[in-house]
Amino acid sequence: MAWGILLLAGVLEVGWAIGLKYTEGFTRPWPTAGTAAALVASMALLGVALRTLPLGTAYAVWTGIGTVGTAILGIVLFDEPASALRLVCVAMIVCGIVGLKLASPA
């Protein structure tokens, strides 16, 4: 259950990170409110997951999900470069997330 909560927290991290782009420097009220809500929910769920999961593992997985999701959506939504090196680096982050999950005692 904690891993599912952590996954949802990571997805919400992607949501608030992408939302930052749409706030236009916090000048747009609705995107700002959605971004803030996703941020609070993401942190709250991370806190719940930390009741069971080791801190180092959970935090690294949470930020990894956020990093990978934000990088991919940056490519898809904002036409950021999708060079081979960039995609290899994203794949290495995914491997690190999987490795941490496999090595976790919880």
3D structure, described in words:
- The structure is a single chain.
- This protein is mainly α and 106 residues long.
- The protein has one domain.
- It contains 4 helices and no strands.
- Helix 1 crosses helix 3 and helix 3 runs antiparallel to helix 4.
- The chain is flat and about 45 Å long.
- The mean pLDDT is 96.
| Shape annotation | flat
Helix content: over 70%
Q: What is the number of E strands?
A: 0
> How far apart lie the N and C ends?
10 Å
Low-confidence parts: none
The portion of residues forming beta strands comes to: under 5%
InterPro entries: EmrE-like (IPR037185), Small_drug/metabolite_transptr (IPR000390), Small_multidrug_res (IPR045324)
GO molecular function: transmembrane transporter activity
Pfam families: Multi_Drug_Res
GO cellular component, one term: plasma membrane
